[in-house]
C-alpha cells in the first residue's frame, strides 16, 4: 500500500518562499507519475506540477517560472519549491502518485492528506 506524507506547508507573506516535501513509501511502479495538486475553498482541485519516471515535467500555467518540482532517490521523496508566492497560491496542497500516463494526465491512484499553504498580502 502506497503511503504519501506531505510536510512543509505554512503561512508566508506575498513574495515569500516555501518548500513542500512528500515522503513516499510502498511505491513500486517502474513507470510512474508523481505530482503536486492543490485545492482552495470553493474551487476544484487542480494540478500544480507533475513529473514522470521518463523525466517529463508539467506545470500549471499559473505557477510556471515560480515553482519547481523535483525528486530525490527516485520515488522516495518529492519536493515542490515555491517562490514568489501570491495570495492566490493559498490552498491545501496534496502529493499524489500512480501509474504512468502521457503527460501524467490520468487520475493518480494514491494521495496524501495534504498540507496547508497560506499566503497573505
Uncertain runs: none
| Main β-sheet description | 7 strands, mixed
Number of strands: 11
Class based on secondary structure composition and strand pairing: mainly beta
The count of helical stretches stands at 0
Determine the strand fraction and express it as a percent band: over 45%
Overall body shape: globular
SSE arrangement:
Blueprint lengths: L2 E5 L2 E4 L4 E8 L6 E8 L6 E7 L4 E3 L7 E6 L4 E6 L8 E9 L10 E2 L3 E6 L1
Parallel strand pairs: 2-11
Antiparallel strand pairs: 1-3, 3-8, 4-5, 4-9, 5-6, 7-8, 9-10, 9-11
Report on the architecture of this protein.
The protein is globular. It has 121 residues and is an all-beta fold. The protein has strands at 3-7, 10-13, 18-25, 32-39, 46-52, 57-59, 67-72, 77-82, 91-99, 110-111, 115-120. Strands 2, 4, 5, 6, 9, 10 and 11 form a 7-stranded mixed beta sheet that branches. Strands 1-3-8-7 form a 4-stranded antiparallel beta sheet, with no helix packed on it. The mean pLDDT is 95. Helices cover 0% and strands 53% of the residues. The protein is built from no helices and 11 strands. The N and C termini lie far apart (40 Å). Strand 5 and strand 6 (57-59) form a beta hairpin.
Amino acid at each position: 500500500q502506497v503511503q504519501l506524507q506531505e510536510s512543509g506547508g505554512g503561512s508566508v507573506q506575498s513574495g515569500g518562499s516555501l518548500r513542500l516535501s512528500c515522503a513516499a513509501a510502498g511505491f513500486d511502479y517502474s513507470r510512474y507519475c508523481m505530482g503536486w495538486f492543490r485545492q482552495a475553498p470553493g474551487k476544484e482541485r487542480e494540478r500544480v506540477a507533475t513529473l514522470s519516471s521518463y523525466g517529463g515535467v508539467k506545470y500549471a500555467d499559473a505557477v510556471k517560472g515560480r515553482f519547481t518540482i523535483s525528486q530525490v532517490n527516485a520515488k522516495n521523496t518529492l519536493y515542490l519549491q515555491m517562490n514568489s508566492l501570491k495570495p492566490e497560491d493559498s490552498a491545501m496542497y496534496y502529493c499524489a502518485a500512480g501509474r504512468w500516463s502521457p503527460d501524467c494526465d490520468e487520475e493518480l491512484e494514491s494521495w496524501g492528506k495534504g498540507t496547508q499553504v497560506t499566503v497573505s498580502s
